[in-house]
Design brief:
The complex is a heterodimer.
Chain A (H helix, E strand, L loop, with lengths): L1 H4 L17 E6 L2 E6 L4 H7 L25 E2 L18 E3 L3 H16 L15 H9 L16 E2 L2 E2 L13 E3 L9 H10 L5 E3 L6 E3 L17 H5 L5 E3 H6 L4 E6 L8 E7 L2 E7 L12 H5 L14 E2 L7 E3 L2 H19 L4 E5 L5 H15 L4 E3 L6 H10 L17 E5 L3 H4 L1 H12 L3 E5 L8 E2 L2 E2 L2 E3 L6 H14 L5 H7 L2 H12 L5 H8 L3 H13 L3 E5 L1 H4 L4 H14 L9 E4 L6 H6 L6 E2 L3 E2 L3 H11 L11 H10 L4 E5 L3 H4 L3 H9 L3 E6 L11 E4 L8 E4 L4 E5 L11 H11 L9 H11 L8 H7 L1 E3 L43 E6 L24 E4 L1 H6 L7 E5 L4 E8 L7 E5 L27 E7 L5 H13 L2 E2 L4
Parallel strand pairs in A: 1-4, 15-39, 16-17, 16-27, 18-19, 18-23, 19-22, 23-24, 27-28, 28-29, 33-37, 34-36
Antiparallel strand pairs in A: 1-2, 3-4, 5-6, 7-10, 8-9, 11-12, 12-13, 14-15, 14-29, 20-21, 25-26, 30-31, 31-32, 33-38, 34-37, 35-36, 35-38
Chain B lengths: L2 H19 L6 H12 L2 H12 L7 H15 L1
Helix pairs in contact in B: 1-2, 2-4, 3-4
Classes of the chains: A alpha/beta, B mainly alpha.
Bound molecules: iron/sulfur cluster (3 copies) and FE2/S2 (inorganic) cluster (FES).
């Protein structure tokens, strides 16, 4: 409801959070106001347009009632209650500006100001300070307590002031200046309620109380703080202040846009001064994030102006030459010429392209359009291949559509959550914060992951069950859970009869009831104690609304698609589909993974997940584009590289992806790239793939273009241009230049025209337009005649495919086995402060949290090999070896090692193999048999690699 | 064609057949063949057909028969 009451562009602070309840009518200063029950008098006043002065209240945390600035008079009640902590009641008559409360407020402000330095003119928050505003609002004119004890003077009465604490500047993005603190505790509450980290506390009491980053640490950086910035945003003064504001001054305008990092898709206000970003503030009407963000989106945007960014197009004849800076015309002409020569010599299907899950929907649509309509083949793929392609296959087979079923708000109504193969606090931090809030309110959690991820146990949260399975046994564990549900009769018969095919379920039930699937029978294989599995299964089946959230730990396996289907089976058999609080929710890696899949990036699917062999669908595009599309599926990324090695695939256009670093089996990728005649890299930086490129086309950042991203909830969010592209062109324009050089004749002048083309050709997007997005802020597809308001939740009245389909999911072990040579299992993941291959985050101050990739090893495995904390270890698999430092921890089980893949110096993918998901070729990143041993430092390969990379990055600037 | 990618194709085809072999009440050969038509580009399918002509070393029975069916479909 609240979204309709408040226009989505109004982001005033209403003082206390929104409530849902039956309407209550009261009178405030003579005006009648109707608000939901449970609303505070302060919020009701604000909704009526009456601002009650306040300091300790802000509308994203619950009221605390400590400053007493917001007092009001209520007829028939004694005294002056705080309006922030007083809920409305029917017929209440409130006076917010009586003489009595005005006097109290002045007195309160006088006390505050007497312990506050009066350096407003030179303060970073000047003009953006609530203390300043309130002093003005209450009409404070003089302060009578000068010279008394205070917290802000460095010296007092000629001696060091014992109460003075110097500024803490340890966090790279914000400062903490205790001298300016009014101890309103908004920061503490934001850290607890919004972020859920509990890094801040108020220490001491009375005049001695102050905010602390925890007794265990000396400063903010060393504390538990994850630098989400919620406290900075909540702070009414300059106590917690963005360093960018200290440096650049307060912003003068703002533009609503969308974070370009992860699949949560947080909405932000880009706050600007001229064309410089001063800060990014999460937007409170952003429906994915509801005013919260993580360190990446809020702070890590400095890469946009990093000196490594390439701004001029470059070409070279062969990859052993240095780069030559050239004009756009020359670069585009060179690229188009090479691609056309290849096609003349090796045939139409000898080239292809890769769309980016980091770019906008419009850009992705144009790249696949160029490949299909201009290159004349279907050799298009996207980085989603290597992460969520099994989601597409699995959910389409079982439910009929390749997408998550819920919106993020749904978690507020969840009672039991399964998190499998995902690490939300690192990978999807804002979702994690929302989940943790729900868990603190009593929902139960089941974690299925080889590692003890933070969610298993963190402040005020403890998983009911953690199933630490052996990597590669997802299907066996999911089957064991389903076995318990079916054999103990815990399934939802009414739902299955109504929404699925009962006979099909019978077949499935026969299969899964076989004792070989029981938790006891699979315990040896999975390493998970049978009673834990039984407990988890019973809890999920009987605990109320059950939701399953999963990540790449599910998909990136040889049985990735099978695991997705087993998740869908579990949701269907327990009746957890089609309403708020339940569902199957893939946590998408990159910001626009969902969108790039929707937009027809896959070689077998046109936009909207329609197979290329479907004549009717091709006819729509044939007519509009004036071409005849190929009806045969094209090559997937691994197939393109195989083709390159075989000499049948010769040219590739790669937009915004670093396949050399992010794809498995680096040696094979390198061999494939090296065998091609034309590699075109379109990116912000000279990434690792560019070492093998002949053409480099500079890209633009999300701040420099218009478009849309689609997040994990199918929500289409606007990306808005806040500054001109530093490289001269937005990415969609660059693709258009290349397509036109090859004869396309496109004439787009704005991405909105591309969206119109998408809507005209793709039924699930039929009603989507920039006008609609302007009006609504965002919309979740399907959005068409049948769902004009979009679809927060899918499969409400029936599955998209009709009846939900149960699929038999036999566990088939991966070919990747441990043995005497490679006795350990390596699994990979990511951490909070870095993003994917790290090309962006490594170029921000986020490196203070993660300077290098490390290898997590269980103490027992480490001891057997004489490895100590911080030692260099060599990590070897049958495909390659690399070295990195050891981190000894019992987060991983014995026999399992773990690392991230954020840094090119480590190249963890030298180790990973080319094994892949049976249905989609999604690589098996999560299981590699390895051996580890002590080493003296980087391997020879790593050293050679950095030499080669340095050589291939030489640039000869254009002659002036 | 390198034997490396040949071996990879065989492994991929076997994986697909391996899944459909476990599906009750379905013709695994037909399902495998259809999966290959739906997801493999024509050149990969042709390469697999050539492998079958050369004896199809390493292909599982279902994969082998699916590949033969593909070859017939291609000829037709
Ligand atoms: S930045 Fe976030 S985690 Fe750190 S103290 Fe502030 S609210 Fe807590
Ligand atoms: S740091 Fe800011 S938000 Fe926290 S108590 Fe001090 S003034 Fe309030
Ligand atoms: S990285 Fe993800 S969670 Fe963090 S701000 Fe961006 S979209 Fe939100
Ligand atoms: S704002 Fe109500 S007591 Fe501080």
């Amino acid at each position: 409801m609240k979204d309709f009451i408040i226009p989505w562009t109004d982001d005033r602070d209403l003082g206390t959070p929104a409530k849902a309840g039956p309407p209550v009518t009261l009178t405030i200063d003579g005006f009648e106001v109707t608000v939901p029950e449970g609303t505070s008098v302060m919020r009701a006043s604000a909704l009526a347009g009456i601002e009650v002065p306040k300091l300790c209240a802000t509308d994203n945390v619950e009221a605390f009632g400590s400053c007493r600035l917001c007092v009001v008079e209520i007829e028939g009640r004694r005294g002056t209650p705080a309006s922030c902590t007083t809920p409305v009641s029917p017929g209440m008559v409130v006076h917010t500006h009586s003489d009595k409360v005005r006097k109290i407020r002045k007195g309160v402000m006088e006390l505050y100001i007497s312990d506050h330095p009066l350096d407003c003119l030179t303060c970073a928050a000047n003009g953006d300070c609530e203390l300043q505003d309130m002093a003005g609002a209450v009409g404070l004119r003089d302060v009578r307590y000068e010279g008394t004890e205070n917290h802000f003077a460095v010296r007092q009465n000629g001696e060091a002031n014992p109460r003075y604490v110097p500024k803490d500047e340890s966090n790279p993005y914000f400062t903490y200046d205790p001298a300016k603190c009014i101890v309103c505790s908004r920061c503490v509450r934001a850290c607890e309620e919004v972020q859920g980290t509990f890094a801040l506390t108020i220490e001491g009491s009375g005049f001695d109380s102050r905010v602390s980053f925890g007794a265990r640490s000396d400063d903010a950086l060393a504390s538990d703080c994850v630098s989400c910035g919620a406290c900075v945003q909540a702070c009414p003064t300059a106590t917690l202040q963005e360093k960018s504001v200290i440096e650049l001054g307060t912003p003068e305008r703002s533009v609503i846009t969308t974070c370009a990092y992860c699949g949560v898709g947080c909405s932000f206000k880009a706050e600007m001064r001229g064309d410089t970003v001063v800060r990014m503030t999460p937007y409170k009407h952003g429906k994915a994030n509801r005013g919260h963000s993580c360190v990446k989106g809020r702070f890590a945007w400095g890469y946009a102006s990093h000196r490594d960014r390439i701004l001029n197009p470059m070409i070279r004849d062969s990859i052993d030459q240095p780069w030559r800076e050239v004009s756009w015309d020359e670069a585009i002409g060179f690229a188009a010429g090479r691609l056309q020569d290849i096609q003349a010599k090796y045939g139409k299907r000898a080239i292809g392209g890769i769309t980016s899950s980091r770019c906008t929907n419009e850009e992705t649509f144009l790249v696949q359009k160029m490949i299909r309509a201009v290159f004349g083949n279907n050799n298009t793929d996207t980085c989603a291949r290597v992460c969520h392609s099994p989601t597409g296959y699995g959910l389409k087979t079982t439910f009929g559509t390749s997408a998550g079923t819920q919106d993020f708000d749904s978690v507020e109504q969840t009672d039991v959550v399964i998190v499998i193969g995902a690490n939300p606090t690192d990978g999807h931090p804002v979702f994690a914060s929302r989940l943790k809030k729900r868990l603190r309110a009593g929902a139960k959690l089941i974690v299925i992951d080889p590692r003890r991820i933070d969610l298993v146990k963190s402040p005020h949260i403890k998983a009911a069950h953690h199933l630490p399975l052996r990597p590669g046994t997802n299907v066996a564990v999911m089957s064991a859970i389903a076995h318990v549900v079916v054999t103990e009769g815990l399934f939802d018969e009414a739902f299955i009869r109504d929404r699925c095919d009962w006979d099909e379920f019978q077949d499935y039930a026969t299969f899964i009831s076989d004792p070989r699937h029981s938790p006891e029978a699979t315990e040896m294989l999975t390493g998970v104690p049978a009673d834990e599995v039984r407990g988890a299964a019973r809890l999920f089946a009987t605990g109320g609304n059950g939701a399953i959230h999963y990540g790449l730990g599910v998909t990136e396996h040889s049985q990735g698609s099978t695991t997705v289907m087993s998740i869908a089976n579990l949701a269907m058999m327990t009746g957890n589909i089609g309403r708020p609080g339940v569902g199957v929710n893939p946590l998408r890696g990159q910001n626009n993974v969902q969108g790039s899949c929707d937009m027809g990036s896959f070689p077998h699917e046109l936009p909207g997940y329609r197979h290329v062999s479907d004549d009717a669908t091709r006819a729509i595009f044939d007519d509009l584009w004036g071409v005849t599309l190929d009806s045969e599926p094209g090559l997937r990324i691994p197939n393109m590289l195989d083709g390159a090695v075989d000499g049948t695939f010769k040219g590739i256009y790669v937009q915004g992806e670093d396949i050399l670093q992010s794809d498995p089996d680096t040696h094979h990728v390198a061999a494939g790239l090296a065998a091609m005649d034309c590699v075109i890299v379109h990116d912000l930086f000279l990434n690792e793939t560019a070492n093998y490129a002949h053409v480099f086309l500079p890209g633009s950042t999300f701040l420099e273009k218009d478009g849309t991203f689609t997040n994990a909830e199918r929500r289409i969010n606007r990306v808005r241009k806040v500054m001109q592209p530093r490289n001269g062109y937005a990415d969609w324009e660059v693709t258009m230049l290349l397509a036109n050089a090859m004869g396309a004749g496109w004439t787009y002048t704005h991405p909105s025209q591309v969206m119109d083309e998408i809507a005209a050709t793709t039924p699930s997007f039929a009603n989507v337009s920039y006008e609609l997005l302007e009006e609504r802020g965002s919309v979740q597809w399907p959005c068409n005649e049948a769902h004009p308001d979009g679809s927060p939740i899918m499969h409400v009245d029936g599955f998209v495919r009709g009846k939900g389909q149960f699929i038999v999911t036999e566990y088939i072990p991966t070919d990747e086995r441990t043995g005497p040579r490679f006795p350990l299992l390596l699994t990979t993941g990511r951490i909070l402060s870095q993003y994917n291959v790290g090309a962006q985050t490594r170029r921000t101050a986020n490196v203070v949290w993660h300077e290098e990739d490390v290898l997590e090893i269980h103490p027992q495995d480490a001891e057997n090999r004489g490895i100590k904390q911080g030692d260099w270890v060599k990590l070897a698999s049958r495909t390659g070896e690399t070295s990195l430092r050891a981190e000894i921890t019992d987060r991983v089980s014995p026999g399992v090692v773990y690392t991230t893949f954020h840094h090119p110096d480590t190249q963890a993918n030298v180790i990973t193999t080319d094994y892949s998901d049976w249905a989609t070729n999604c690589p098996e990143y999560k299981v590699t048999a390895v051996q580890i041993g002590l080493s003296n430092g980087p391997t020879r390969w790593q050293e050679e690699y950095s030499d080669q990379a340095a050589r291939s990055r030489r640039i000869i600037p254009a002659a002036e | 064609m390198s034997s490396d990618t040949d071996a990879k194709l065989v492994r991929m085809a076997n994986q697909i057949a391996g899944f459909f072999d476990t599906q009750p009440g379905k013709d695994a050969v037909d399902a495998t063949a259809r999966h290959l038509v739906e997801f493999w580009d024509p050149r990969m399918r042709a390469q697999l057909a050539t492998l079958v002509e050369q004896g199809g070393g390493g292909l599982s029975e279902t994969a082998h028969r699916a590949a033969e069916r593909l070859a017939r479909m291609q000829d037709a």
